[in-house]
Specification:
This protein has about 450 residues and is an alpha/beta fold. It has 13 helices and 18 strands. It has three domains: about 10-40, no CATH class; about 45-195 and about 255-445, Alkaline Phosphatase, subunit A, CATH 3.40.720; about 205-250.
């Protein structure tokens, strides 16, 4: 039998060139253009990001190390799931019954150990440059939701393409894409008589206020004529147009109306911020929103454990996860159940993660914010886990692994850029193309990264 010689992995450019031939002469940008056209003729793809700002501990969620020494393994225990070989935290029993509907990426890692810096790395794919070792970086590039908004723009029904359920990530800015692509922030969906800001005119019953808004826009138009910053007029015009569409669209108002859901459904998601945010996100992606960011934090006057920043001086790992994880479990499981049962799991990708993981070694403090003994972990970008569901990806598996103490990836390492390339491909966005920044320089959407092959 004739031996076949394998020359090994080929370079990215050679792969793309070969792909052009295999696609009948289509270049990669042309392929994405065709996909974008096809997307307008069928259900559009969407991404829901459950953003756990503060840095959730991988060792107290989805990458537990029960056999590690006591100073590493932490106070919580793992439970088995319905997928053999996948164990997760004991406070996630609903997810344990649904492991066939999600996958875990346990080998994510980067090098940014400050909150803003890590968030910028994960959400934009660009490594930030903090001004000095004592400061956190300021975003110089848009996050993936802003990029999606740029390519998808506003739909025919006026639906914004990037929505922050509660709020959007506060550390990223649209910069050279323009203010029109900032996320539309909803406020707290669990609030009594929830109504997002600036949607009260959509019923068309308050024409006086609508006239006042139009007058204000007119005044603002006259004011902005004095501006001479590069692209500012175009950006503000786009922002005003999008805002006016949101104000006057009955379809937009209907998408945000949680009161249209049954009491049983609202209870199933959970009558808390994260559960109702998940329900709102489902309604929004059904209405064509490209990206929904769920802010999985809470004001510190509503909960003791308001972020995922589990320093010993702030929280106690057991008490904190005992409050947080059941709400995460309820909201995310109701969301993915609905997406799979409604046939939306191929169109909608759900990602749950934060900006980094936590130190493998447990730390202690005499007392914390709640006058409890402090048991925590510090910032650790060397190893973190992302939870992914839907998107037409392979579910019920684990991508990569960390060493016995969850200090670093042991095999199949994944970068935030790889995860973003996976997200962009799902959204039909060619991550290899570039924007032009304020200085006229080309800026690639991603400087590097490839979709995660195992998914």
């Amino acid at each position: 039998m004739r031996q076949l010689f394998c020359p090994g992995p080929i370079r990215r450019r050679e792969f793309l060139r070969a792909g052009t031939l295999a696609l009948g002469g289509l270049t990669l940008p042309e392929l994405f253009a065709h996909r974008a056209v096809a997307g307008t003729q069928s259900a559009p793809t969407s991404v829901i990001m459950f953003w756990m700002w503060g840095g959730p501990s991988q060792l107290e969620t989805w990458d537990m190390k029960p056999d590690a020494p006591v100073e590493y393994r932490g106070p919580l225990n793992p439970i088995s799931t319905n997928v053999p070989g996948i164990d997760i935290c004991e406070y996630l029993p609903l997810q344990a019954q649904r492991a066939h509907r999600f996958s875990l990426i346990r080998s994510l890692h980067h090098e940014m150990s400050a909150h803003n810096d890590g968030s910028i790395e994960v959400l934009t794919g660009k490594t930030p440059n903090p001004p000095d070792v004592t400061s956190q970086a300021i975003s110089q590039h848009p996050d993936f939701g802003m990029v999606a908004s740029y390519f998808r723009s506003s739909g025919a029904n006026g639906m914004p393409q990037y929505v922050g359920a509660q709020r959007a990530p506060f550390m990223t800015r649209p910069v050279y894409l323009g203010v029109a692509h900032k996320a539309f922030e909803t406020g707290d969906p669990s609030a009594e008589k929830f109504s997002p800001p600036n949607l009260t005119l959509a019923s068309g019953t308050d024409n006086g206020r609508l006239g006042n808004r139009k007058d204000l826009l007119g005044q603002f138009d006259r004011f902005k004529c004095a501006l001479d910053q590069r692209r500012s007029l175009e950006a503000v015009d786009q922002f005003n147009s999008a805002a006016f569409e949101i104000l006057t669209s009955t379809e937009v108002a209907a998408a945000f109306s949680l009161s249209d859901e049954s009491q049983e459904t609202r209870d199933r998601y959970g009558r808390h911020r994260w559960g109702q945010s998940c329900l709102l996100a489902r309604r929004l992606v059904e209405s064509g929103v490209a990206v929904v960011n769920i802010d999985a934090t809470a004001p510190n006057d509503t909960t003791k454990h308001f972020s995922w920043d589990d320093h010993a001086g702030a929280f106690h790992l057991d008490y904190a996860q005992r409050e947080r994880l059941p709400q995460v479990d309820q909201g995310l499981c109701a969301l993915i159940d609905d997406l799979f049962e409604r046939g939306l799991d191929r169109n909608v990708m759900v990602v749950a993660m934060g900006e980094f993981g936590r130190t493998p070694r447990v730390t202690y403090a005499p007392t914390n914010f709640s006058d409890q003994p402090g048991v925590g972990r510090d910032h650790w970008p060397g190893a973190m886990t992302a939870w992914v569901s839907g998107g037409g990806l392979r579910m019920g598996q684990v991508i990569g692994a960390t060493n016995s103490k969850s200090e670093y990836p042991l095999h199949d390492p994944v970068t935030p850029q790889d995860l973003l390339a996976t997200v962009y491909r799902h959204l039909g966005i060619d991550w290899t193309q570039s924007f032009t920044d304020f200085a006229g320089r080309p800026v690639p959407i991603l400087p590097f990264g490839e979709p995660i092959a195992g998914l």
